[in-house]
Known about the structure:
Elements: H1 17-33, E1 37-38, E2 44-46, H2 47-54, H3 59-63, E3 66-69, E4 75-78, H4 83-92, E5 102-111, E6 123-132, H5 137-153, E7 159-165, H6 172-185, H7 192-200, H8 214-218, H9 229-244, E8 250-251, E9 263-271, E10 279-285, H10 289-292, E11 300-306, H11 307-313, E12 327-331, H12 337-348, E13 362-364, H13 371-380, E14 385-392, E15 395-400, E16 405-406, H14 413-423
The protein binds adenosine monophosphate (AMP).
Amino acid sequence: MKFQAPKGTHDILPGEVERWQWLEERTRGVMALYGYREVRSPIFESTDLFVRSVGESTDIVRKELYTFQDRKGRSLTLRPEGTAPLVRAFLENAPLREDSQARLYYMGPMFRYERPQAGRYRQFWQIGAELLGSARPEADAEMIDLFRAVLHDVGLEEVTVLLNSLGDATCRPAYREAIRAYFKQHEGKLCGDCKERLATNPLRILDCKVPSCAPVIAGAPSVLDSLCPECAEHFEAVKRALTGLGIRYEIAPRLVRGLDYYTRTVFEIHAAGLGAQSAVGGGGRYDQLVKDFGGPDTPAIGFSIGMERLLLSIGADAAPAAPQADVVVIALKPEAGIEAQALARTLRGQQEAPERRSPLRVLTDVAGRSANSQMKWASKMGAKWAVFVPKGEDGYAVRDMAAGKDEQRQPSIEELRSWLLKRREPVESAR
Ligand code: AMP
């Protein structure tokens, strides 16, 4: 084989794609219930957008960006995440700012140059939601509730919500220094990357996945002990709101997440059965990002869910291959090919007014195969009926494929169509 899908990418094929479509539909339904509207932003943006938001010292920016120059020498990057593009779109498009609480969501592929493994890809899909315009704990609670609602709607109930607060510009600097001092004492036990992080961004050490760093991280001071009174009160209020909504959570004082723009609340949702990559998704507050991008003071919070991981966690059973056709129109001789196509088109009802259209799925051969091979193909496609052209003296011949039995002839196209419609099986929605 000359070409292969690039490392870390995967094709989503028929048989599997039905589950993706199902997940997308369910998610859109839940988003609509909560009043969130979709934004489809470009999959590439100016490189600076990500460097300035995700943060120069994060793994994503240092090691994982797909960056290229276009023909005019502009530096562009395939988006590694969806929040920065959405904030950019929010600032660029006044209609998104009409409501002082903007509720937006996105769904689409993200790109990170990571080491591929189960549940980790270089192109992966995310569903994300953002609520811009409120600093209040109710917004945090709505976000986590919405996250849970998306999972609940696709049958994922057994999850763990991890919750932490990273403080804000008032209290984080002191915590950063406390943690720098702590890790400095244990520098000898840190991995090479963490030694670098000690100088650039010591908070990132808490996110290190290298096993030898784990014991040192476990002993690090808790950010929750350094929160200023306002951040501490916000955190308490978020916890009260979650309890009020009946959402259970665990406090995870070392949860920092891999992006620098977070302030105050951060959270992750983990599901069993995902192995090492157990986070289905996560999110947090980013009260400074809109302002950092030159916009008005706009506190905000969001989350993103990995679609591959979500599908993995709700079970890998592929949807039963849905039949591709209800009816196959078979040309008994090569000259009848066009008649077959015309009949197929009429049977699909596409020329009819929308309310009269029928969900008959009709296929016809375009490879000039013999009537015999068309019959075999019709069974393979799962067709319930075969209809033969040219039309005979007494009408269209119809065969029940499963019973292998010829039915009464149908004198006209209209009669043929209503006969088939009466007997069609409902198209099952995939799961
Ligand atoms: P993040 O944007 O890093 O907060 O990631 C949010 C979610 O996206 C994670 O919890 C995963 O479910 C998913 N995700 C992140 N990176 C990858 C990846 N490389 N491959 C597959 N899913 C990913």
